[in-house]
Amino acid sequence: MGLYFLGVDIGGTKTHALIADEEGQVLGFGERGPGNHQSVGYGGMRKVLHDATGQALAEAGLSISQMAGAGFGIAGYDWPSQKEAMLLAIRSLGLQAPIEIVNDASLGILAGCSQGWGLAVVSGTGCNARGWDRGRQHEGRAIGEGDLVGEGAGASELIAMAIKAMAHEWTCRGPATLLTPVLVEHYGARNLAELVEGFSTNRLEMDPADALLVFKAAAAGDPVALDLVRWAGDELGKLANGVIRQLGFQKLEFEVVLVGSMYDGNPLLIETMRNTIHSIAPRAKLVRLNVPPVVGAVLLGMEQAGFSADERVRKNLAQMIC
What we know:
single chain, globular, 43% helix, alpha/beta, Nucleotidyltransferase, domain 5, 322 residues, 5-stranded mixed beta sheet
């Protein structure tokens, strides 16, 4: 009988569960909606966890008792005080195998860093950054609370900045921008005044997915949109630089894994981010994560069982998922 491993990525937008064997062959996959306890509560997290894992087990034709190890990346797992509540939700699965839980941003390191250490910077709906030194004795981190603590830039922050730019045009505090007609059309307003009123009276709500509109305007050469893309890249670079300083990586050669949909928006985002990082860590190498982060959760599960995944296993996982 082979060894089977469970990995779960519990996210703020979606949740993935993956089951693989010791060869890296994917046997089962499950997908559900958001499981972040900050938005759905621990009861919602538990339900999503059961549903996604159950789907993966059914596809694999396996039971939870057959798992040899399990790894979980959890959005919203930010502080040691939350650990017991997280483990309580996970234990409800009936796992008998050794498990480990990490913040979901750390899955990018596991899945994308060739040596199993380095940094991951996430930019999707929100943003986050985590880092491990060689041997994983020390962790560096951002706080992961967005605007509340002055951290940017995920899609939520970028579209908010675009709406501010539009409002500045209307009040003559800023220049005219292509973002204005793009936003007016997208939100179905008759004109800029109606759009401003809609956001001011909460009749209209920002959607993080609309950050794509900023990239659209930037691709058309709009100076304001281009500045916003540079702002986002610089903010993401500063998130990385904070972690780099915490871990003392300034003179090292290491990988910074880029995780999330924002990196698909415009090459200028990554270019600006790279320049900001290289200003303090010139040997850092930015790499795009090319597999779902849940692969990192499976690799974490393998580690808990004392199984070391070699390059062949990693390659198999990547081929089965892509």
